[in-house]
Amino acid sequence: MQTFRAIASMICRVVLLGIAVPVLLSDFPNGKFPSRFATAWAVIAVCDALAVVAPLARPRKVAFLAGVAAVGAHYYFRHLVPTWDMAYMAMAILLVLMPASGRNTAKPRRKTRL
Question: 48, 88, 89, 112: least surrounded by Cβ within 10 Å?
Fold first, then answer.
């Protein structure tokens, strides 16, 4: 059961990366930085970059918080929430609600002296 949970968690993280990368790349106009580094563009790009890096972090909650930041930035600056952001949030919620694999809960055995 532990292996199944670990594999499911890895699949969710890969799907989160697959969703976040196109969202991040859509913010780059023609593959280059804008000539005038606007605050709105910078905040949205940073939040999307955080959403790309978050699934690689150990705590699962980081992916959810990065998704919330990305959704908030998109809504605040563009007044719309892209469908990809909502898909990211759905996968992040699934990742957070998934039970832990329990691999780190085992206590190391103590060596006893005779």
Answer: 112
